[in-house]
Amino acid sequence: MLKQNVPVLITGGTGYIASWIIKYLLEEGYKVHTTVRNKSNKEKLKHLIDLDNLFPNQLSIFEADLLKKGSFDEAAQGCTLIMHTASPFKVQGLKDPQKELIDPALEGTRNVLTTANNSPSVQRVVLTSSVAAINGDAIDAKDLVKQTLTEENWNTTSNLKHQPYSYSKTVAEQEAWKIAKNQQQWDLVTINPSFVLGPSVTKRKDSTSIDFMLSLAKGKMKMGVPDLMMGMVDVRDVARAHILAAQKQEAQGRYIISNQTLNLLDAAQLMQQHFGDAYPFPKRKLPKFLLYIFGPLQSFTWKYIRSNIGLNFNFDNTKGKKELGLNYKNLQDTLVEHIEQLIDWGYINKR
C-alpha cells in the first residue's frame, strides 16, 4: 500500500494527528500530499513549511474543503493510499452541532471517499474514526464481559442532542463502511483512538487536548475532578497505528487504539508523581451530587452524569497490538512530555 516513490494523501494536514503522520512519513522517505483549508494562512502552516524545508521535494500541499465536492481530487492524483484524518473535534461550546460537527464529518467522509472512487490509483483508505464510534457513554459497556468494549461494538446511544461529537464520528464511520462495501477498487481500515494526548508538532492552541492539560495544570480543576473514566493514548502511537495500517497488507477492519482507561484523578496523580506540588493538580474526586448541582454550568447534562460518572469500562486494544504490531508508549511519559512542552511554549509558567 505504501510505496517509497508513490505519494500518499493525508487530509487535514494541520491537525494534531495528521502532523505526526506527515512527519513520520517524511522521515521514512515517503512522498506526501496533504490538504489544508487555506494555503495563505502561513502561521497555521508553519510546521508544514518547516517540514518541507527539512525534507525537500517530498511534501506537496493542496487546498481542500470538507464540504466541497471534488476538492480532494487534485491532491489524490497518483496516490495509492489516502489517510482521511480531517474532522472537527469539539465537545464543548457548540452552538449548532449539525453545522459544526455532523456536516463536516459526514460530508467530508463522503467527499474524500468519492475522490477515492474517482482515483484509479487508490488501493486503500485509512480513516481516522474514534472510540466515540464504539460507545457514547460509559453505561454502554454495563452489560459487556468485564465492561470491556471491542471493535465489534458500535455507539447506538449518541444523537444530535446527546454526545453530538460521538454521534458525528459514528455516522461518518458508518457511512465510510457503506461506501466501501459498494465498490471493489480499494479497501477500508479504520483507526479508532481514545482521547489523544502528548506533545504536538504544531503550536496551535485550538486543541481540546491542550485545553484538558491546561485545566489540570493551571488549577481549573484543583477543587476536584469528576469520577470519570477515559481512554487515553499518545498521539505518536495513533500516528504510528495509521502508518502500520497502511504498510501491512493484511490489516483489515477497525482498530481500537487506546493505551489505558484511567479515572481522571489517576491521570492527574501520574503527573503529580513527576512534578510534585509545583502545579495545582486535582487531588480528589468531586461528589456526584455536586455535579448534579453545578454540572450543567460546565456543560454536564444530568443525562451525561447518570450515564458516565462513577461507571467503569475498558477498551480492548489486543487487535491493534497483535495485527499491527503496535507498542504503546508509557502513559505517564505521554502526560509529562505534554505538560513539559506547554511549559516550553509558555502556556504554563515554569516552576
Q: Strands, helices and their partners?
A:
Elements lengths: L7 E4 L4 H12 L4 E5 L9 H9 L4 E5 L9 H4 L4 E4 L12 H22 L5 E5 L19 E2 L14 H18 L5 E7 L1 E3 L10 H10 L11 E6 H13 L5 E5 L2 E4 H12 L12 H7 L7 H7 L5 E2 L2 H7 L6 H14 L7
Helix pairs in contact: 1-7, 4-5, 6-12, 8-12
Textual characterization of the structure:
With 351 residues, the protein is of the alpha/beta class. Helices cover 38% and strands 15% of the residues. The chain contains twelve helices and twelve strands. The strands form three sheets. A seven-stranded parallel beta sheet has the order 3-2-1-4-5-7-10, with helices on both faces. Helix 4 (97-118) packs parallel to helix 5 (164-181) and helix 6 crosses helix 12. The N and C termini lie far apart (47 Å).
